[in-house]
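Ticket closed. Logging final result for Peptidase MA-like domain-containing protein.
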Amino acid sequence: MILTLRTRWLLAAIVVIVAAAAITVSRTHQPRRLAPLVVNFSGDGAVPAISRSMRPVQVDTLRISVAPQALPSDASLDAITAELYTALAYVSARTGTTLAGPITVQILADPQCALHGAAYTQTREVHVTTCAAIPPARAVNILAHEFVHQLAHDYYGDAHLRSDPILLEGWATWGAGHYWLGRHATFRAFLGGQAPLPLITNHLGRPAAEMNTLYYQWASFVEYLLVTYGRDAFDRLYRSGNGVPGSADYQGVYGVDLATLEAAWREWLR
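Final structure:
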């Protein structure tokens, strides 16, 4: 595929922002195939046990444990807790959803200093793996995304686990809002009219820059659907998928197929 100069600029810009925020996302149900700098969502799978050496903090909704060497030595656990509650309140308000109960938050240490995350929404656990050399704010960016996955499970029920990945990850990315957007106000503005990948694209195995491009595109597409058709229709669409990109009932909910919606979305981006 030959990339235009503007497309190359977009991919380069995404690499810079992702390097700063560490918010790359991997696919649903792949908890054991994490790559460096990857946020992974999974509705099930093995969940690492909390080590006895971790420092637990329980403040009502978030039950936070921090492993040794996961954060800088001068990091304040109280400050991290406050930031996580702020992130949860923000994404909850942005998505109009609330948690059905407490969730466990594990901040784990990676010997290789890789940064990635996971959400095990059936067992109400979210993880971020980081190290003392990485600023804690980057872990908060990742967990904001993971919080949206748990909120979505609580709101949509088990339909969340089989949602169309375009919507599942697009919603979590859109819901994380400014934790992913940097200086931009919207995902439409972030893309700047550039969307080089088709919406129906398997992100697994792609280079990090392309994978991030795809997730930002999906977030922008969700943004377009919400602006154009409203939340009620989006909720019906979200519940209609079967776990495959493009599997939601776009025709039944919106009266047009995904190809038509994608063309309209691309026009909207310009």
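The two ends are 22 Å apart (CA to CA). No further action required.
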